Amino acid sequence: MKKTVIEEIVNVKLKDPVLIEGLPGLGMVGRIATRYLTKQLNAKPFARLYSPHFPYYVLVNQKGSVRLLHCLFSFWKNKTGKHDLIFLTGDSQAQTIEGQYDVADTILDFAEKHGVKTIITIGGYRKEAEKKPKVVAVSTDLELLNKALKADAIASPSGNPIVGTAGLLLGLAKFRKTSALCLLGETRGYLPDPKAAKGVLTVLQNILKIEIDLSDIDKEIERAKKVIERMKKIAKERETHALKTRKIEEGKVTYIS
Amino acid sequence: MKKTVIEEIVNVKLKDPVLIEGLPGLGMVGRIATRYLTKQLNAKPFARLYSPHFPYYVLVNQKGSVRLLHCLFSFWKNKTGKHDLIFLTGDSQAQTIEGQYDVADTILDFAEKHGVKTIITIGGYRKEAEKKPKVVAVSTDLELLNKALKADAIASPSGNPIVGTAGLLLGLAKFRKTSALCLLGETRGYLPDPKAAKGVLTVLQNILKIEIDLSDIDKEIERAKKVIERMKKIAKERETHALKTRKIEEGKVTYIS
Amino acid sequence: MKKTVIEEIVNVKLKDPVLIEGLPGLGMVGRIATRYLTKQLNAKPFARLYSPHFPYYVLVNQKGSVRLLHCLFSFWKNKTGKHDLIFLTGDSQAQTIEGQYDVADTILDFAEKHGVKTIITIGGYRKEAEKKPKVVAVSTDLELLNKALKADAIASPSGNPIVGTAGLLLGLAKFRKTSALCLLGETRGYLPDPKAAKGVLTVLQNILKIEIDLSDIDKEIERAKKVIERMKKIAKERETHALKTRKIEEGKVTYIS
Amino acid sequence: MKKTVIEEIVNVKLKDPVLIEGLPGLGMVGRIATRYLTKQLNAKPFARLYSPHFPYYVLVNQKGSVRLLHCLFSFWKNKTGKHDLIFLTGDSQAQTIEGQYDVADTILDFAEKHGVKTIITIGGYRKEAEKKPKVVAVSTDLELLNKALKADAIASPSGNPIVGTAGLLLGLAKFRKTSALCLLGETRGYLPDPKAAKGVLTVLQNILKIEIDLSDIDKEIERAKKVIERMKKIAKERETHALKTRKIEEGKVTYIS
């Protein structure tokens, strides 16, 4: 494999489709949200993107076979609304500077080919946790931005960087006749953050005018909460233990002197 | 985006133009000086350089949209003198070795296309601060060098390296019919240094025989000075605080023993 | 050398050949096993793969000359069975991400050209030492996987990564009419591990239905065992010495106080 | 500059030339020896090699201009012997893996074009200092190797790596009708080592049957010796000073307690 390629596995014709992208990144917000949509809407895979800029390992799958790291395009036929949806998520982002630009460009070529005129990218926005994480929106298109702001997203301060595919797709879309919106869920970013993803999903269903059942992501949020509580407990036990050890050692010192 | 490209946004015809380059680098001297000139002369943007060798993020702008990192060419019509001016500044330099050579070459191609026969590059020269920072000049053209020396620049010791675009443009210009001069403002280089930039501007207006109002950069210098004073004050307070803490601890030690 | 090339040194016609690959990697399992087979079966070299992605040094050989780092293809004519064998081992894997994909692809092109329909790759699987290291198998082909499992290999947990050429050959083989099996010998991976390699060889001779004399690898295992014992002894002596030194120092401290 | 290029500055016709290469590397042995020969024989520059794989800075020269990093080919017409000589030295080696292979290949193309059938590369061989550093020889050609061994070089142990251009030129020469010899001067490698270079020069003049005045390199050796002595003296003074400081501090401690 000498260059980034997209292999189409099913031939589909889509109605004025919107592309929604969420690759691994800060707090895994983009990937969690996009995978959740793919599952809930029962979207069907139709193309895979492979690249020599992805890490050079394969992953064992459940059948005892392997697969190259890749990104997966799935589609969803929207029976009631105007826009079919394409979802893009995957194993990894490109690992080199030039690879990042190359992969983003290849995605845009593919989108253009399928008649995509609107792209929504999803990512995380580093911020110390609040009760309810907000969703930050930026867009190449004022109308699209306003839709997001009406759907309770907030505007980004000027000067902020948006790193990786979620940002480059917007930057490169401006050279094409494609509008693009980026939704970033506020997250501390250390661990996979379904709560931040839920925030993005809430904004998203509003913009797309589709209804998504969010009860399953609430379960994910519960699980993530328990993981954090368990980690905090372990950390506390360690601290207590360390304190005891220190006291014992100080005791010793006293004894020795 | 698979390679470095220049997108021309306005069609301009320039009179024997001189290109002045100042990208981010040591003490931001080049960028500060070039942006200052662009503003003061009210130069107009006419082309943008994009490259897959720039960092792979985008920046949010004031309209809530984003832009790819890029370099910007602006022009200024010189009504009284012989040479129109082209200014080149931008967000970043190329991030890889091969990228640096590639971007510099693309700039020279563009300059040649627009009839540029003289290039002036601006950068910083690492030196511990003196009252009035000097400007170091090197050139591929003896006449050009002498102009700079007459304008109070000093010659560079032989063997010095000039890193990045400011240097490569000179090195690569020698393969073309282009003369190039590099002006380096002495700077400690830790912080954006408008004082070093002012030094370069003074030499530059002398060489270019144009008049530039330098009162605004004096304000920038004042601001930078205050920033430094504030930082020094904070550093001092920290020191005092640390000293107190130490004394208290030493006190304790005495007490314990 | 601007790209990966394969130089054929002998023209051979092979009968439905199986390619067995083992390059340097974890515990050197793949390389030890493949080299052992090459030697035992007296396989003959017939092609070399060179690449600008290999490290940029040469190795002095026994005649006082040098050789570029490369991978070596050897063949073995199977007089009694259905499949001739091709062995691939070498000095190094590619050093960059893109290089890894490039080299794996070049290997597959070459295999295809020689009519290879089955590839077996060998590597190490990191696991703390047990009495008898197991062999982990994954395959792009269920039948092939079952053969390995019958030959006492165990299935890999899903989600495991297989890094480097041993993995990429499987991942990329899926785009071609080539079946591929990967056999990973469990190893701690710190030192060359002939014991892990022997495990793989045992499975391999069963799958390939060829007999290989394993007495020589038992000698290698003995040698490796002695090396480890020697290293443990040295480590213990160091520890004892450190303990004594500490006691002496503690003595000093007592004395000083 | 998008790829490695050689710019010929003078048109020369050479008589069965031998190419002698010495780029910066371990102990600067190759560069010191090759530059010495170039000077002593008053060889004339005739071509420059530029590459986007060299570091991305330029060097200020004595005329106040700059030059790109490059390698320089010089020639020497041999009035009495059979072979003219080409010398290749320069500022830098390529900075990336692929760049190293690319630059070495470009050198060989150029050598072939000028009818070079023998190449001699020079480098350093890491070894703790002895009274008289030896010269280690390896060659793609047994006859050439024997010449070096007769001239008091010693053979290299098998398995040794030779890193960089000095090694790759030999490895890649084997694909062409070019013989190549590598001479490595033993050096500790920390500092420029004219003594190691002298060793190589002694062997070289014997092989090439030319006489080179070595009195100037003896002066360089003297200078290098003085530098080392000065450094040792400084190190000793520091040690003495540190010892005093420690004693004072220990004194304090006693006082405080």
3D architecture notes:
- The structure is a homotetramer of 257-residue chains.
- With 257 residues, chain A is an alpha/beta fold.
- Helices cover 40% and strands 24% of the residues of chain A.
- The first copy, chain A, has 6 helices and 12 strands.
- Chain A has a 9-stranded mixed sheet, sandwiched between helices.
- In chain A, α1 crosses α5 (194-208) and α2 packs across α4.
- Chains in contact: A-B, A-C, B-D, C-D.
- β4 of chain A pairs antiparallel with β11 (161-163) of chain C, so a sheet runs across the interface.
What attributes does this structure have?
homotetramer, 257 residues, alpha/beta, nine-stranded mixed beta sheet, two-stranded antiparallel sheet, 6 helices, 12 strands, 40% helix, disordered C terminus
Please write out the topology.
Four copies of one chain form a homotetramer.
Chain A: E1 5-8, E2 18-21, H1 29-40, E3 44-50, E4 57-60, E5 66-68, E6 71-76, E7 85-90, H2 97-113, E8 118-126, E9 135-139, H3 142-150, E10 154-155, E11 161-163, H4 165-173, E12 179-187, H5 194-208, H6 215-256
Parallel strand pairs in A: 2-7, 2-8, 8-12, 9-10
Antiparallel strand pairs in A: 1-3, 3-6, 4-5, 6-7, 9-12
Helix pairs in contact in A: 1-5, 2-4
Short description:
Four copies of one chain form a homotetramer. Chain A is of the alpha/beta class and 257 residues long.
Oligomer: homotetramer
Shape assignment of chain A: globular
Given helix and strand content, the structural type of chain A is alpha/beta
Measure the end-to-end span of chain A.
69 Å
The tally of strands of chain A reads: 12
What's the overall average pLDDT of chain A, rounded?
93
Total count of helical runs of at least 4 residues of chain A: 6
What is the succession of H and E elements of chain A? EEHEEEEEHEEHEEHEHH
**Uncertain runs of chain A with pLDDT below 50, 5 residues or more?**
253-257
Strand content of chain A: 15-25%
Task: Tell me the radius of gyration of chain A.
Answer: 22 Å
The chain pair forming the largest interface, with residue counts per chain, is: A-C, 24 and 33 residues
Helix content of chain A: 40-55%
Give a quick account of the main beta sheet of chain A: strands, pairing sense, barrel closure: 9 strands, mixed
Query: Reading side by side through the largest sheet of chain A, how are the strands ordered?
Result: 1-3-6-7-2-8-12-9-10
